[in-house]
Design goal:
173 residues, little secondary structure, two-stranded antiparallel ribbon, flat
Length: 173
């Protein structure tokens, strides 16, 4: 849970309802009317206080491109790109950092923020579509920096292009 939101939130923050006037009895960050006399129940569409964030979500049919092992220095190499490079891009993944454990490379996006725990399981259905059954053959994994306009795939490639830095020359002297 993000510490800012804290799980349970009031209706003003959660649904953005209007605050009541200043002298309102028993609080002003509420909804003034939660429905008519009939139907004699509260409709689902009426804003109420409750859970904010950290919701349970289920997605199906994610395609796994690669299963990586901890400590593999060539985890981003492919049959077409034989460069020795780890899966972590130069400068690390934004708001995540370095990959130090086993990893999965999945097609598309995944619900939740970075570092959110995910549960994966095998599909219950037998896949018959061509898209689901096609063999995955990765040709290239981009490991350029994700922070700016990344040009280089590896640290060695960057040093070969830029030459010796001032701090490296001073260390040699």
């Amino acid at each position: 849970i993000n510490a800012e939101y804290g799980g349970y939130n009031g209706v003003t923050f959660r649904r953005g309802t209007k605050k009541l006037p200043r002298m309102t009895h028993k609080g002003l960050r509420k909804v003034a009317c939660i429905g008519a006399w009939h139907p004699s129940r509260v409709c689902f569409s009426v804003p109420r206080a409750g859970q904010y964030g950290y919701h349970h979500r289920t997605e199906v049919n994610k395609k796994v491109y690669r299963v990586g092992v901890k400590g593999d220095p060539n985890s981003a190499s492919t049959a077409f790109d034989l460069t020795d490079k780890p899966i972590t891009p130069m400068g690390g993944f934004s708001h995540y950092g370095q990959i130090n454990e086993d990893f999965l490379m999945i097609k598309g996006n995944v619900v939740g923020p970075r570092k959110r725990l995910l549960t994966l399981r095998k599909s219950l259905l037998v896949h018959t579509k061509r898209v689901a059954l096609e063999k995955i053959n990765l040709k290239y994994i981009d490991t350029a920096s994700k922070w700016g306009h990344g040009r280089f795939q590896t640290d060695a490639e960057k040093k070969a292009f830029q030459g010796l830095l001032k701090k490296d020359r001073e260390a040699m002297e």
